[in-house]
Amino acid sequence: MAVIRRRTCQTSEVKQNQMKTLLRVRNCWDLKERTRSSLSRTQLHWERPSKDWQGNWAQNSWTDVNHQPNVLLGGDVMFVFLSRDREADLQFINDYRPAGGQRQFRILLHGPVGAGKSSFINSVFSVLEGKICHKATACNITQTTFTKKYITYKIKKGDHQNVYPFVLNDMTGLSNINWKHRRVYEKDMRMAMKGHIKEEYKFHPQSALSETDPFFNRNPTINDKAHILVTVFDASTINQLEETVAETIQEIRDEATELGIPHVAILSKIDEACPEIRDDIKNVCQSRVLQEKIQILSKLVGIPENCIFPVKNYHSEKKLNHETDALILYTLRSIIEIGEEYLSS
């Protein structure tokens, strides 16, 4: 009798667990079957986050119903990061038109020196143009920034007659040289977010853009202003991010929030930080190391985990890679979708 009761209890417990799983899956947003690569053969469900992009997003819950990843967040909530269907994301980007009839959607990138800002711009160019591109000058030396001027990067469509209705701007790198440099960086960032910096403005580490400067835009339009702020971090050095740099990024984030500009982050160089991803980029779905780095970054600068996008940029490759493309396209689409909330409001 005791054995029968024990088996009955075990069966009941199994049924309860199955019901919990079914309810969790039922309440998730089906991201549908992935692309033809082995990366895309895993079916995922994602709990849709809340709409508040001003630092109040609910935490994402990723559930893989076919495979149990080796990273668990607080019990049965599993971390999985996987791109959407590459072709669907590419189609979305090709068809995209800014809300409200605006001419262009401006993505403003900034972050520590050597984090991969210019490399991300080059990667976006590469994916959309179908070949490895080097439009923005990138540097592998973490102590030196190659971005000296404020440049707006426009990407031509396949017919080379039209351009995509979004642009990318790359700020000079943030370094921990001294207090004055960080204050100058903050002021320039504020000017850029408000649309006061004209094309080709040369950054000066010791002095911020002034209203008397010929490169100061006195009457910025909605197209000149930043519609989303993207901070880029190096995953391989995130554990060594200096406190003063993190505080500066937090202050810029607060400024963006006051201006009503959404803020997300890109975690680049994930292949350098995570050996399992370097061996196979599809392991981005299950990397314990990557999830720990995302959690560290979230705590350091206050960016919600589901607003941090892991990316592998193109830097030494000679040819494009389907899985790398998928992560880049997913990140770009997410940036546009989050920024659209700002335009819509």
TrEMBL record:
Coiled coil: none annotated. GO terms for molecular function: GTP binding. InterPro entries: GTP-bd, P-loop_NTPase. Residues 106-251 form the G domain. GO terms for biological process: immune response. It comes from the Eukaryota. It holds the Pfam family MMR_HSR1. This is G domain-containing protein.
